[in-house]
């Protein structure tokens, strides 16, 4: 289908890195039809705009974290913002005829990627087969990682979200020679507050990388192991082999993952519990992650061809 150059289209994405990565299939689908796409980002973390500035499909990137706001008139505005974050932005579009109506919230909680792609479908874009998450990032060759490097992303957001943290990253690191840790200092704590202590051979890139540098570093590694987290979904989007560890949260509610992603979950009758009686069945112990042994994750890495 030919591009529609006359239509100036603004896509508004917001919330966490994981949500924004899961919304990138929308950008891919729109780019197949529209030639004049601009992106507004309201991300929980600074530097998100740098992930998108070199994408030829986007005419402009407006990152509110860098005090960049879009201006001028738009033919269509796509408010592809998660329902839980929508109250912060609803006022912007209450009297805006260019803003598309939003899909039902129930679709977001059933299939997040399908929720975002519904905007593209209603704009006449092909969404079957659905594109996968994507950001145009080249490997950061000057970093001290290689295809023999295992990258570990042991964290996620804080508070109750930290219940998604698998506690055995240090024990997994013992089984491989070339290992780096990425993320922030807080990521090195388990849900119960205890600190993760890694073997001395593990190199730390914690709090040393901007978001674009992190993405390029992940792209240069051999494989990434992460929780259900923003870094995990960023790794999936850059195309590196990625093992995502799911516990109380449902992987199915995020939509289909690309072939470079392996999802691991310990099969317990109470999991996932995130949208039901959250953490009740195990009394807050997070048994679904406590009972996932490092040997199982290591075996998944080797099945994926990693021998680092």
Q: What is the helical fraction, as a range of percent?
A: 10-25%
Number of domains: 2
Distance N terminus to C terminus? Answer: 44 Å
Average residue pLDDT: 95
**Unreliable segments of 5+ consecutive residues:** 1-5
What topology, given as strand order, has the largest sheet?
7-6-5-8-9-10
Number of helices: 9
State the shape: globular
Question: What is the fold named in CATH at topology level of the largest domain?
Answer: Rossmann fold
What amount of the residues lies in strands?
Answer: 15-25%
**Care to count the β-strands?**
10
* Structural class designation: alpha/beta
Question: TL;DR?
Answer:
With 308 residues, the chain is of the alpha/beta class. The chain contains nine helices and ten strands. Helices cover 24% and strands 16% of the residues.
Using brief descriptors, characterize the structure shown.
308 residues; alpha/beta; Rossmann fold; 2 domains; four-stranded parallel beta sheet; 10 strands; 24% helix; disordered N terminus
Structural summary, described in words:
With 308 residues, this protein is α/β, with parallel strands linked by helices. It has two domains: 9-122, 3-Layer(aba) Sandwich (Rossmann fold); 150-303, Rossmann fold (3-Layer(aba) Sandwich), CATH 3.40.50. It is built from nine helices and ten strands. It has helices at 17-31, 90-93, 105-110, 112-122, 169-173, 211-220, 230-238, 287-290, 294-303, and strands at 9-15, 37-43, 58-63, 76-80, 150-153, 179-181, 203-204, 223-227, 242-246, 261-265. It has a six-stranded parallel beta sheet, with helices on both faces. Strand 5 (150-153), helix 5 and strand 6 form a beta-alpha-beta unit. Helix 6 crosses helix 7 (230-238). It is globular. The N and C termini lie far apart (44 Å). The model is unreliable at 1-5 (pLDDT under 50).
């Amino acid at each position: 289908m030919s591009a529609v150059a006359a239509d100036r289209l603004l896509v508004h994405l917001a919330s966490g890195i994981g949500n924004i990565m899961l919304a990138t299939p929308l950008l891919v689908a729109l780019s197949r039809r529209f030639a004049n796409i601009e992106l507004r980002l309201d991300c929980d973390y600074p530097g998100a705009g740098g992930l998108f500035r070199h994408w030829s499909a986007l005419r402009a990137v407006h990152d509110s974290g860098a005090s960049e706001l879009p201006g001028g008139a738009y033919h269509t505005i796509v408010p592809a913002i998660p329902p839980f974050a929508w109250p912060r932005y609803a006022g912007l579009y209450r009297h805006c005829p260019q803003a598309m109506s939003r899909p039902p919230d129930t679709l977001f909680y059933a299939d997040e990627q399908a929720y975002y792609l519904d905007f593209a479908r209603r704009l006449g874009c092909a969404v079957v087969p659905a594109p996968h998450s994507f950001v145009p990032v080249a490997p950061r060759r000057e970093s001290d990682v290689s295809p023999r490097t295992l990258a570990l992303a042991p964290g996620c957001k804080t508070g109750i979200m930290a219940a998604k943290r698998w506690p055995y990253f240090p024990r997994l690191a013992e089984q491989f020679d070339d290992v780096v840790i990425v993320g922030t200092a807080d990521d090195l704590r388990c849900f119960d507050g205890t600190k993760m202590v890694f073997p001395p051979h593990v190199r730390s890139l914690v709090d040393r990388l901007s978001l674009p540098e992190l993405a390029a570093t992940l792209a240069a590694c051999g494989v990434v192991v992460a929780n259900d987290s923003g870094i995990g979904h960023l790794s999936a989007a850059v195309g590196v082999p990625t093992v995502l560890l799911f516990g109380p949260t449902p992987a199915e509610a995020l939509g289909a993952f690309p072939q470079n992603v392996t999802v691991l979950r310990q099969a317990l009758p109470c999991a996932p519990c995130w949208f039901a009686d959250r953490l009740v069945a195990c009394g807050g112990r997070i048994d679904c992650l406590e009972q996932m042994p490092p040997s199982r994750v290591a075996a998944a890495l080797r099945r994926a061809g990693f021998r680092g």
